[in-house]
Amino acid sequence: MKLYCDTGQLTLLRQFLEDFLMTTSMDELERHQVLLSVEEVTANLIIHSHACNSSEFIQVNANLEDDLLKIEIHDQGAGFNILDYEEPEIDQLITTKRKGGLGIMLVRKFMDKIEFETNGRKNTCRLFKLVNSK
User: Fold this and answer.
1) What are phi and psi of 80, to 5 degrees?
2) Residue 103: φ, ψ to 5°
3) Predicted TM-score (pTM) above 0.90
4) What is the side-by-side strand order in the sheet with 2-4?
5) Rounded Cα–Cα distance for residues 37 and 39 (Å)
6) Distance between CA atoms of 96 and 61, rounded to whole angstroms?
7) What percent of the chain has pLDDT over 90?
8) Dihedral sign, CA of 25, 30, 35, 38?
9) pLDDT of 78
10) What are phi and psi of 33, to 5 degrees?
11) Which residue, 93, 84, 81, is CA-closest to 123?
12) 59, 75 contact by CB (below 8 A)
């Protein structure tokens, strides 16, 4: 799915993922965790890497092979390696009343594996979730 770097495109992403995830054996909670994770990564790219420049785009692919869900998010914006992200201390967030900073932490909690690679200006973030057959 090709998404232009406009936060309004997140609605299209959500519909695309909901339709795809309904074809899996994932329960509702797992589907919501995947949706939140992919939306978080994609929204961060749109806002921070692409400055909501709607002439730029992000490619999102979803694939289920055997019991492994793989979501690939490709872009050519300023690189952000999710694996290098240092999680904030929850107590500090509460004390300073800082908004934000929890999304990447949730992505790490919800997904079973995360990969990131950069090849020149092309960045790829892969999110993996094991899907148990029911």
Assistant:
1) -140, 110
2) -60, -50
3) no
4) 2-4, 57-65, 68-75, 122-130, 113-119
5) 5
6) 37
7) 65
8) negative
9) 75
10) -65, -45
11) 81
12) yes
